[in-house]
Amino acid sequence: VQPIQLVLNRVRPKMIASQEMLSVNDVTDILALPLLGLVLEDEQVIVSTNRGEPLTLIGSKSPAARCYSNIAARLLGEDIPLIDPAKEGSGLRDKFRRLMQTKIF
Questions:
Q1: Is a pLDDT exceeding 70 seen at residue 97?
Q2: Which positions ≥6 away from 75 have C-beta within 8 Å?
Q3: pTM listed for this prediction
Q4: Nearest residue to 36 (alpha-carbon basis) of 27, 45, 46, 49
Q5: Which H, E and C letters describe 7-71, residue by residue?
Q6: In angstroms, rounded to a whole number, what is the distance separating the alpha carbons of residues 94 and 100?
Q7: Which of 36, 40, 50, 91 sits 20 to 30 Å CA-CA off 2?
């Protein structure tokens, strides 16, 4: 299969910012492969897997669902910009959504 492209899975922006995880640029430099896309770490992946429902087809607005859809579109030849992990989830709406999805029990 040509060309070989890279998909980074389970990317955690907070860990990249605190340098506990390699940055996207570091990984692509080390592997010397073009980046097709990245998938952000997302609890909704586990939920959809446990339910047997495809994450991208259940109408979820989860970050991972958006990442998977972007990767599929790129494979079809669409020009979609990569998500910047540093900017992802930093807005007030995103923080509130994460708070509401947090399960206490």
A1: no
A2: 36
A3: 0.74
A4: 27
A5: EEEEECHHHHHCCCCCCHHHHHHHHCCCEEEEEECCHHHHHHHHHCCCHHHCCCCCHHHHHHHHH
A6: 10
A7: 40
